[in-house]
Amino acid sequence: MTWLRRQPAWVTVSLSFALLLLLWQLLVLLGGYDKFILPGPLDVMRQFGVVLADGRLVSHSLITLSEVIPGLLIGAGISLPLGYLLAKSPLAERLIAPYLIASQAVPVIAIAPLLTIWISSTFWARVLVAVLVVFFPVLINIIAGLRSVPHELYELMHSLHATRWQIFHMLEWPAALPIVLAGLKLGATLSVIGALVGEFVQPRTEGLGYLLVTARYQFKTDLVFVVLFTLAAMALALYGLVTLAEKRLLRWQKNK
Q1: pLDDT value at position 61?
Q2: pLDDT of the residue at 2
Q3: Which long-range contacts (CB under 8 A, 24 or more apart) does 134-137 make?
Q4: Which domains does the chain have, with CATH numbers?
Q5: Distances (CA, A) of 247 to 65, 144, 241, 244, 252
Q6: Residues 37-65: what's their mean pLDDT?
Q7: % of the chain with per-residue pLDDT over 90
Q8: What torsion do the CA atoms of 109, 114, 118, 122 make, to the nearest 10 degrees?
Q9: How open is the CA angle 158-161-165, to the nearest 5 degrees?
Q10: pLDDT of residue 154
Q11: What is the mean pLDDT of residues 56-67?
């Protein structure tokens, strides 16, 4: 255990993943499951090689990624100004917050079919589903981050005759940034889910959602696992990008 704690994160993650694959293979062998019920990791790797070689995995992944990234950026972009407004204005919170909270009681999968009626573009309908999934968690973190700023620091800034922009730029934004970035990490993973839901509701012969549905109907369980692992890798990559941005933006915390 002591040796394991001293290793870099990528070593421990690789070892845990290898152990997971080993346990998975043992479960398949000892349980005697058919391939269409539970394929082994070797079957999944073989199918991964097939769809990677014929280009299907790359092309469908790029389509889904082209929906995920705009969904994440637009969802976060809308959350920032609205979150600031709700955090700073009690009147705006009383007027807007009840509708935002009530909207979360309606599953996105129930709203998504309406988008097929309202939006003629299949691409933008899928993106909008991702926006809806990303929007609320990021918004809540922005509000929490802005409200976490100590009141004494506001008094200090006012005593120095700071303008509203200076207060935001030099106090509110740096103080709220750790919590905002935590919400953005959550939004990065949820954007993949949102795009996938959009692909389920907006059928089109492209995207990982289409590939997943096709594999399910054809009883290609190994291909289903390939798609699931690809979606997980996409979410981890986006999470990692936000983490890298967090380390760069919050370098001042380490220097305190």
Answers
A1: 93
A2: 65
A3: 134/71, 134/72, 134/75, 134/76, 134/79, 134/187, 134/190, 134/191, 134/194, 135/75, 135/78, 135/79, 136/100, 136/103, 136/104, 137/183, 137/186, 137/187, 137/190
A4: 57-250 (1.10.3720.10)
A5: 24, 20, 10, 5, 9
A6: 90
A7: 30
A8: 40
A9: 85
A10: 85
A11: 93
Residues contacting 211, CB < 8 A, separation 6+: 51, 56, 57, 60, 223, 227
The amino acid at residue 189 is T
pTM of the model: 0.85
pLDDT tens for each residue of 143-196:
988 888 888 888 888 888 888 888 888 888 888 888 889 989 999 999 999 999
